[in-house]
Write a structure and sequence with these properties.
Elements lengths: L7 E5 L5 E6 L3 E8 L4 E9 L5 E4 L5 E5 L5 E6 L5 E7 L7 E6 L5 E5 L4 E5 L11 E7 L26 E5 L6 E5 L15
Antiparallel strand pairs: 1-2, 2-3, 3-4, 5-6, 6-7, 7-8, 9-10, 10-11, 11-12, 13-14
Length: 196
């Protein structure tokens, strides 16, 4: 069974067919996932060493992992019998590595605790060092990273939807707030909804 007394992560593959679990006491485990009924089955032990952060490549062929006290970024090739390769070492920050998260551009971003930048895997579908790990890939503009990154469900497109400018109007406390989009031409009629 899965249990952890510390850090860990659960990550679905972009195609929704795999589920990976990492933790200090579990290493990395990979499961088949049936997204029509939520059944998790066929566990495979990928790594027994403690691992904390995990992330799938956009094409579902690679799984990346690391432990927060190690600077190694490890790639498991899911199409080649879970072959393992260290694709690079990270520097900067406190030396502790945080979560990995695939971005809307298909790159994988890696938090470096107290670092002023995120590391980036620029070509995560590529094998080995061809994945193009950049230690200082994304500058945080003076801010410092912690362990986590925002949740983002990757849907397989490198196109980022535009975020419209909007304004709001409040007349009195406890009355309805009116929201207005400055340019509704970015959206098809009826395709925009507010979710609070």
């Amino acid at each position: 069974g899965i249990q952890s007394n510390g850090f860990g992560q659960i990550m679905f593959s972009p195609d929704g067919e795999k589920l990976a679990v990492s933790g200090e006491s579990v290493g990395v485990e990979l499961f088949d996932f049936d997204n029509s009924n939520g059944i998790v089955k066929n566990p495979v032990k990928v790594e027994t060493a403690p691992m904390v952060s995990i992330c799938f490549s956009p094409d579902n062929s690679k799984l990346y992992a690391n432990h927060y006290t190690s600077t190694d970024i490890i790639q498991y090739d899911l199409e080649r019998g879970l072959s393992k390769a260290v694709v690079g070492k990270l520097t900067g920050g406190s030396g502790w590595i945080g979560n990995m998260q695939i971005g809307p551009d298909g790159k994988i971003y890696i938090s470096k605790y107290l670092g002023k930048e995120l590391a980036v895997i620029n070509d995560p579908d590529s094998a080995g060092t061809r994945c193009n790990l950049s230690d200082y890939g994304f500058n945080l503009g003076g801010a410092k990273a912690l362990f986590g990154l925002p949740n983002f469900v990757y849907e397989g497109s490198s196109e980022v939807s535009p975020i419209p400018d909007f304004s709001f109007q409040v007349k009195c406390i406890r009355e309805a707030v009116l929201f207005h989009i400055s340019d509704s031409s970015l959206f098809d009629s009826g395709s925009l909804s507010w979710d609070f």
